[in-house]
Amino acid sequence: PLLASAHESSCIRLWSIQGNLMKELRPFSKHPSGPLTALCTDIFIKIILAGSKEGYIFRWNMASFLEDSRNRKNEVKEELCWRAHATEVVELLIEQERNVVVTASIDGSVRLWHAMTGYYFGYFGQARKFELSDTSRLILPSDVSNFHAIIKEESKHMEKKNVEYPLTLDRDK
């Protein structure tokens, strides 16, 4: 069992059930991620998705890490980053059978994306039907002006030093 938490510092922390910090993930892209506001996994907990306050979606592959979390070579790899909304992402859902990601934002929109590529399928309430089989035709939401989904080959960002933050109550502060 594993617990995941998303933080305002734009990192995801993976915890053991005993409360030990196992891994800290940070988005690795040229665009600032900002505070993370939503988090979800697929049903097999191989993929983890995070949404940010700036409307970005980040996708990590956790398969090799979960096989043996003690082996340092088994990393959590960031695979994809794309702009899904112009405002804060408040909810994420991965639908395994259709291979889609559903995102919701504070702007009131709910959108559908291809889970592997970040291609936009449309929004709930649109007049046309969703065409889930065609990912070759690039369309964008009206508030996202350029497509910059980034498929990560190998994230080479520096590991953060492990710093302990003991929980202590200081009544004076």
UniProtKB/TrEMBL annotation:
Q: Which UniProt keywords apply?
A: Repeat, WD repeat
Where does the source fall among the domains of life?
Eukaryota
Q: Which PROSITE patterns match?
A: WD_REPEATS_2, WD_REPEATS_REGION
**InterPro entries found in the cross-reference section:** Beta-prop_IP5PC_F, WD-EF-hand_domain, WD40/YVTN_repeat-like_dom_sf, WD40_repeat_dom_sf, WD40_rpt
Q: Where are the WD repeats?
A: 82-113
Q: Locate the IP5PC-F beta-propeller domain: which residues?
A: 28-114
Q: Mind telling me what this protein is named? A: WDR64 protein
What species was this sequence derived from? Answer: Regulus satrapa
